[in-house]
Amino acid sequence: MGLYVHVPFCASTCDFCAFYQVRPTAADVRDYFAALEAEAALVQWPRAASTVFWGGGTPGLLSPDALRRLGEITRRYCVHGDAADSGGDFEWTVELAPASVTQARLAALREVGVTRISMGVQSFQPALLDALGRQHSREQVYRAYERIRAAGFASVNLDLMFALPGQTQAEWEADVAEAVALAPDHLSTYCLTFEEDTALWLKLSQGRVKLDAEHEARLYERTWERLAAVGYAQYEVANFARPGHACRHNLNTWAMHEWVGLGPAAASQHGGWRGANIADLRGWVERVQRGGRGGRGERMTEDRLRLTPAQLAEDAFIFGLRMNAGVSLEAWRARAPDAPWAQVEQLAQRLIAEGLAVWAGQEERPEGKGERLCLTNRGRLLADAVGLEMMAAFDVEAA
């Protein structure tokens, strides 16, 4: 069971960011906390959360006392008692921007039980940071990282972005080298995407920036080679970790387990339903005040989807094939026997014939077919296209 808390507050909007966010007032923060606690109390918790993720926005924009309050709400309603103290598989991640990292905030996060910090670096180069609209400097990244390490969190992740406007391969490799030199436990390397309603999307539509698929592919491949050589195992297209430091919250989500989302724009998947809260702070507050959450009173979530085993299987293959471990056909066939498995297996065989996928563990099975379907490196370069084909394979009506 996962918990995602969306903290929608941000001082400014980066050019690439499409996540819901607002510049907060004191009244916004006050109302947010009141509504968040009320929403947590409305959830019919089937069990305690074993992973927690605070994202945004910028959770680090909150004061230390506000972070403590958010932690207290999380522990009281979602983690249930001493779950956060039990160690084992429990993980609690908070996203921070370099400029928001202070010793006081880190102390507050340690107090409430946070185990993992994910810091959005994006680049170490001033010109590229400026092109993204990021509000931090290279020096702030280094100061923030030192403080995070000194605070003693169990895992630290750094986010980097590549294929930025005007970025050369040499510049990207310099960013990777600088990140590796800091020795984080986990690295996320995201190819820049152009989301609608962002400043970068407008620049793309105006021809001020251009896409170059071949350049992106070279950067992907070079990144995978470089990080593997220095001990970061790739476990998903964009994510690399030292042993024991993969992001458990994301793994839970990609495997189509359950999670609860709290806050405006937060998505949930539990109790047989999937949906997302309204992406509007005032509208979300008003709905919570009226008792809206799922089946109780006014519906809190939008685009609610009743989940079937076949729907979960489809999503498990779309997201699971992005993971190096792949997806088990046998396990999902047993869980969702009514899904169109003949079409899925036909697609799997075609992907294998085209060199985009393999059966994992094939050498151990006499029938010559491994249990898990995994993408090859070439397949991972085309993971989005493979996902679209998988959607088509699961589309019974189209067949």
TrEMBL record:
Keywords: 4Fe-4S, Chaperone, Cytoplasm, Heme, Iron, Iron-sulfur, Metal-binding, S-adenosyl-L-methionine. It is found in: Cytoplasm. Transmembrane segments: none annotated. One of its GO terms (biological process) is porphyrin-containing compound biosynthetic process. One of its GO terms (cellular component) is cytoplasm. GO terms for molecular function: 4 iron, 4 sulfur cluster binding; coproporphyrinogen oxidase activity; metal ion binding. Its main location: cytoplasm. InterPro entries: Coproporphyrinogen-III_oxidase, Elp3/MiaA/NifB-like_rSAM, HemN_C, HemW-like, rSAM, rSAM_sf. Belongs to the anaerobic coproporphyrinogen-III oxidase family. HemW subfamily. This is Heme chaperone HemW. It comes from Cephaloticoccus primus.
